[in-house]
Amino acid sequence: MDNDMNATSNNGIFLRGFGNLHDFKIPFFFLFFAIYMLTLTSNLLIIILVSTHYHLQSPMFFFLAHLSFSDLLVTTNILPNMLLITLTDGGMVFLSGCLTQFFFYGLSATTECLLLSAMSYDRYLAICKPLHYHTVMDSKLCSSLVISSWSLSFILTIIPIYFLQRLRFCGINVIDHFFCDLGPLLELSCSDTSFVKLEVFAMSTLLTMVPFVFICVTYVYIILSILRISTNTGRQKAFSTCSSHLAVVCAFYGALFAMYVAPSKGDSAINKGVSLLYTVVTPLFNPIIYSLRNQDIRTTIRKYLRTQKPHI
């Protein structure tokens, strides 16, 4: 048994990637590469703009910058290796590398849930308690919410990694996926994985459903407050301040819930397609939403791009 486990640890795990799409690997490679470059550029641009422009250094944009960093984390954690295995019809990764990839994947997902909750609370205060907004949502609270989000996510993500690295891995060391997701990884183990599955399910449910319920409750209050505004112009202006966040929440939780309902075994094509939504599409979608729907971001981007043009 130990020899089998050592073989998996030393020889690595083979990720099949998109081997069934061999004839289209070149177009897929360039498609994923273009998405990767756009995701890096758009999220880095958001971070740079928020960091360097004083009028964007409000609580909402402060949270947005950390959301973009979380998107960069999941993108750089998965896409470079995915590009490689797409081009080579699969690739090897050491068990330690597999666990590291799963750790950063979980860290990003958990942090994003908590940051979206913090952003919903910010929007609740801005619309429902405008007179108390600047008193309550000060820089100290913003920093505390962000630090708590990253710290809690780190602690709660490292726990399943601890139990995963204690499992014995043996047998066929092949994962029919493009990254080291939990389900396919547990299938390689010859240990009893019921405790790990229960622990991860309970923790992931807690960390996704509690923030989701909190966001829903805040938006109930937000919508009720907006409906009490007497003029259509006032209602539209109030709703526009939270429409970008609401669109990001729908995109993120839509992809997350799709991963929950996807079959854990059986059709790997469905699992890969659903995983692409969260790991590839959502990190690109978030900055685009804020760029298109937020006037401050659009104006700042135009000014920033004009200043970067070479003077002749």
TrEMBL record:
SUPFAM superfamilies: Family A G protein-coupled receptor-like (SSF81321). Pfam families: 7tm_4. GO terms for molecular function: G protein-coupled receptor activity; odorant binding; olfactory receptor activity. InterPro entries: GPCR_Rhodpsn, GPCR_Rhodpsn_7TM, Olfact_rcpt, Olfactory_GPCR1. Residues 42-290 form the G-protein coupled receptors family 1 profile domain. It comes from Xenopus tropicalis. Its main location: membrane. This is Olfactory receptor. It is found in: Cell membrane. GO terms for cellular component: plasma membrane. The gene is or16s1. Belongs to the G-protein coupled receptor 1 family. Keywords: Cell membrane, Disulfide bond, G-protein coupled receptor, Glycoprotein, Membrane, Olfaction, Receptor, Sensory transduction, Transducer, Transmembrane, Transmembrane helix.
